[in-house]
Every structure is written in C-alpha cells, then in structure tokens.
Amino acid sequence: MGTNRISNNRRKFFKASAALIGGTFAISIMKPLGLMAQTDSDDNTNEKDKFPLWGMGVDIEKCVGCGKCAEACKIENDVPKEPFYFRTWIEQYTVKNDGEVKIESPNGGIGGLNQSVPDEDIFKSFMVPKLCKHCTNAPCVQACPVGATYISPEGVVLVDDSYCIGCSYCIQACPYGARFMNPVTKAADKCTFCYHRISEGLQPACVEVCPTDARIFGDLRDKKSDLVKFLQENPTEILKPHLNTKSRVFYNGLSSEVR
Amino acid sequence: MSKIIFRLLLSFIVFVTAFIAIRQLVIPDSFGKLGHYRANSLEENKARVPYYKGTEKCASCHQDIYDLQFSDLHSEISCESCHPPQIDANTDCKVMPPIIEGTIEFCAQCHKMNAGRIDKGVPQLDIEEHKGDQNCIECHNAHAPWELTE
Prior knowledge:
heterodimer; A: Alpha-Beta Plaits; Alpha-Beta Plaits; 3 domains; 3-stranded antiparallel sheet; 9 helices; 20% strand; elongated; B: mainly alpha; 7 helices; 40% helix
C-alpha cells in the first residue's frame, strides 16, 4: 500500500510539472515576449539588402582645415558650442624635421586651423577630419548595458536619447574618442551621419558645406555611388584596423602618424 | 495532491506570472523588433528638421548669384559653407539674412598660409602682408573671386 501511494503521488507530480512546463512554454511563445516577432523576422533576411549601407570617404589630400564641417555639424545637430563637445572635428598633424609629431585641434578646428610651428621646422603637415567611424563591429554597441546605442539597418550607429542611462561606458569603449556626454540631454551623443538628413535624401551637413569636397558620402551597396567610385580610385585605409572594428569611414592619404 | 506540492506549484506560478508581467511592463513596446534596441528610436532620430537646406533651395530665390558663383573658382562651394543658417531650422532666411561681413579673418579660415594647405588648390596668402584696412569683399567678389569689384 505504501508503494502505491508514493507512485501515485509521483505520477501526479510529473503530470503537474509537465503541464506547468508546457504552459510556461506556451505563454513564452505568445506575442508579449516578442519571440514570435523574432522568428518572423528571421524569414526575411533578404530585407536587409533593401537598405542602403552608408559610409564616408575622407580625402586628407584635399582637406584644408577650414573647420566648416565642425561648425556646420554643431549648428545642424544642436551640439553645445563649448569647445569639448564635438561630433566631428579636425586635427592638424605637424611632423617636425626632428621627427616629433605635433597634433593640434584648437576648438575642433572651428574658425580655421592655424599653424603654430615655424615653417622652417616643418617636415610635413596635414589635416585629418575625425568623426564616428560607424563600425560594423562597434565596441560602443557591445558596451551599452541597456541597448540604447545600436546599429541601424542602414549601418549607422545611433543613440536612443530617451533610453540612455548616461553610464558613459560607450564613451570609454570607443577607440576613436568619437562620443561625448551631452550636458543638455544627459545622454551619450555622437555623429549620426545626420540621420535625419540622409533619410530625406540630403547629404550630411559636414559633406554639404565642405568647400574642397574632402568628404564623400554615399551608399556602399550602390556600385555607382560617389563613395564606391572614391574607394575604387584611391588607396584608402581605415583608422585602427588592428582593432577589427571594420569601420565605414575610409581615409585617403593616411600617414602612419595618424592615430 | 499534497498540500506542500500545491503550495510549491502555486508559488511557482505566481513567480512566473509576476516575471512575465514585470518584463512586459518594463520593456518598451518596440524593443527587440529589429534588434536589441527600441525600433521607434529610428523614427525619433529621423524626426529632426534639417537646418542646412542645400544649394538648390538657395538658388530657387537667388538664381543670379548661383549662376555667377557657378561660373568662377568658388563654384564647388555650397552657399551654406559661408552663409550658415542663423536662427533655427524653421525660420525663413528673410527674417535674419545670413549676411557675411567678408572680414579678413573669415576668408583666412581657408586662405591663410598654412603648411598643411599647400598644393591643395586653395590659394594661400600671407595675411599679415596682404592685409589692408578694408574687408576682403571690398576688393574681391566673394561669389566670383576671379573678378575684382573695382
């Protein structure tokens, strides 16, 4: 009799457990958890190809360091005017005859860069516009604990202002120093390739104002775009390739001093 | 079913339900739709109004200046390089025309002698030497720099 009672109870227990597990599973695949939505989107992997893949080319051989791009970026995106908040900025590299490298970027280059080294000491000098590299393997996206920074379907790394908790992990994670904490929104801020402009078919503000066409913006998937043409015509490089970020900002005429 | 198993099951169900309910409440609607982020954030990022309207927009009123500029050395420069929007994205440029004084400091942003600008197709001037008492635009037509005004 004793054995009967035990086995009976055990059967009940297994039944109840199976029902519970089954029930939990049934609930979990229902819409509220969004698992259904994910399985749906897996079927449409070709959807991605319909989006453009934005990238930028920077021609160091053309940049004159006038600072119009940095200025336009601040106006277009309401970036605070203080000289340490930049979505894009220009650095002037000066290699002296004794081999020393001087890097300057007063006010991000806004108002034009001035050469502070006397001409006779200069071996070479060039300007390097910097901005977010919109990495394919973005370290900032991996670092964000809440999913407030992400790569859009068009390959643009964006910030969700309202969801950002302001922990600054992404700012530390970025190897290019392209992010900053916006004192107004209290959220991480960065170049968006002027996402609002490119979605309307306009060029980013920095590309629009560049007087020497040193910045080339375009769709990497469109084989006829200006950017693809630029990449075909010039031997371009990305910054810090050893970090495997697979950035989508390509530099022509990059010297080994640039970091 | 014995009492203890019933209690165990009940507390388990309560826990699972509470977990699903809280998760539902805390995670925003569009989160996870496209990836590990709020899909609505894409639209929010798109929602800004562009400040810089583009050369075509300027040319729709100032066709004469556009033609003049296109005929000369400054043809590659867009209007808003020198005439940035003044107030905000929605204010008409007639309210506050983006007039540029054409001071030597302004033109020097591109044309001041700098070792980093040599051989880039932008004429370089020794500002100290070239400097007069006037603004650049008193002699040079900024839209067509090859023409001197007088």
